[in-house]
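So, could you explain the following?
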Amino acid sequence: MHFISPLRIIMFLTVVWNHAESFARVRTTDDRFTAVLFDLSPEGRFVFVFITAFLIARSASTSSAIGRLVAIVGPLLVWCALYAGVEMIANGPGPGGIGSVLSSFLTVLVETPLYFVIVTIQLTLLTPLIQVMVRLERRAQIVLVTVAATAQIAVVALDLALATVQFPFGALCIWYPLWIIGGAVLAANLEVVTGWFRANLLRMLAVLGMFAAAYVGIATSVDDPGAFGSNLLLRELRSAWNVLVGTTLVATCMQLVASNGRWSARAKRAGERMQDLGYGLFLAHELVLHGLATALAPVSGTVPFPVLTLILWAGAAAATLGFVLVARRTPLSWSLTGRPMQRRVVRASVHEIA
């Protein structure tokens, strides 16, 4: 279970990276080669769903699920109000009076800033189903993963096919079954999978490198990346890439914590302390990104795309971490992070759902 500790750090950094890249893309001119390389960055949301499903499968009960929901709902409503307030300050309250205020609140509730808490609530409500998957026979679990992986390919194709009619495909929430099922199956077979990962880590890294080189070669050689056929191929390759990256990250973290060396101990401590910061990291990081991007607005247009992405990523990650560390030591800790106030941050149990 200790491999979750360093994986939490990777999860947070990839989430901030994905959003920093989006912020940078609309604020400066990107180039095709850099965009292709950045396509290979792992999707933080998939890692988040995978870890959350895994933790629910390993340690959830009815009472713990209710406790998690109670801890999540308070910060969710507080941050809804904060984001809605910032939106109204920036753009005005609108002509509808209290109706506009309520509309802003509800809009924020379903938008990106609070996405990770919403997904956590959804997965928590799926606790009984996740527990059922854990208890299935191994053959049934293999069939389930195979079906989910095949369905993922169909989902990408359907998303592209419906793009021309602007169908709200993301609202169907069908991107995530593969990652939910994968987290549950890993939880059920942790010891077997751990042994296999440790024996095949170098092979997995080699496959990852060859896949990355092949993707870059294909993406930079097609004449029109936006054409349906080319776009479908590249999207399917990125889906497969995310599965490979997610699997390799889990294997690497397992290998790291199994080494029992100095770096292993540091990774465990850092991950457990990050867990203790609660949901504040995921709730606050986009607001921090907005503030940082606004501060850099006068010069961001002249900064190269990769450099601006790195600046936003490093600045937002560091500022968010600092903000939540301070918040954890104030009476506002419970409202902002879902954790009780502490004068000194201590390591949380690795079995506790973050």
Remarks:
- The longest helix spans residues 190-221.
- Confidence is low (pLDDT under 50) at residues 348-354.
- The chain has 15 helices and no strands.
